[in-house]
Amino acid sequence: MQSIAPSIEQVGSLLQWSADTTEHAHIEVVKDPASSTNNHNNESQICRCLDRLKKCRCFNTAVTLHKSAHSAPQTINSQPCNDSDAESAQEDITGPAFASVLDEIWTAQRSRTNFFSVAARLAADPNPTLPLQTFIGGSTAIHLNLSPSLCRVPINHVAQIFDLPDLCGALSDYVNHKDPSVQNVHSFGGQRRCPPDVYLPFKELHVWFRVRLQQMSYHEPCSVSSTFSVHAHPPDSDKWKYGRYDAAILNVDQEAEWPSSGLRGHAVVQTHLIMHPVSPRGTVNPFTNRFLIYVQQFNIVPQANGSAVEHTTGLHVLKRATRASGSVLGEIFPLDQIRSYAHIVPRFDRTADNRLTTSNSIHFSQSFFLNKYFDKDFFYAIS
């Protein structure tokens, strides 16, 4: 991506694409084909390589069509057929057969899972296993895998794995200022109110690295939209050296409703931990009836022209929220307050940071765009 940084400034803002998507396209149509060249006349050799790939795809499509046309069952008939019968048979082959092949090529082979139906079925079960791992929060269906990624891990160990030194304090604030019997909306607080060594009624956590979210279509409330995954993956030694923590929309006002309220009453957050407190063996704890998330907040930066969005891109500008002490503003929330996946794009300065890659650009950046162009339902919700 650094090699094409000068062209970014010349072209201007790519409204519909994030830097990640642009870099991915650059890899597919430039870098990969260039790797097979002899480093001379790169442009012509790259074009020749792309042309060959296109011909291979067209050939595969033609072979598939040919096989489908000749795989239709043939009926044995000793009677001679006239021209009209032949034309009718030809139409049968090139009509429905052709359409079925196109469906096979271009249509998704797997049906879309309706998590709203799954949640309703689980809620109607007279003897459910609580807490439900597929449930509805507001207008969003939320799904967790049956088995957690990490089982019964001590809280201090989780804090080390995810590099969250204030995790114990955040859990203490949540436990000491939250009535577990009341399903009201939790909101961001001010300074950390509890010391990190305060007593907690649980000592271990189940941890998930991903949660799946599904909403109804914005203009067709009876039709489910695509499912998006929000990742909260700790650092590893392979690709995600600094972890993979996706952004999301979180409801912080019980009077607001997503998506009709837009960003009013909602916060843009970065999800760092998806967890479930585990009661000590032989005990029952009211705080274990809900899944929890640890998130860090982004503030929406007001623009000089009085608008909420940046005038060139039409996107909201985000910055990491901090406390008065300078520490990042992180809090514990019930998972059922999450409403949508959010796609954030690093906001680059005039000078490109040569450390940035697809896996660390969110970690090193401090300013972001809230990309509303990645999904049409999200676009309508915040526009």
TrEMBL record:
Superkingdom of origin: Eukaryota
A Pfam family hit: DUF6830
Composition bias type Polar residues, residue spans: 71-82
Chain intervals for the UniProt region annotation (Disordered): 69-88
Domain DUF6830, chain residue ranges per copy: 114-270
InterPro entries assigned: DUF6830 (IPR049233)
Listed name of the protein: DUF6830 domain-containing protein
Source organism of this protein record: Scleroderma citrinum Foug A
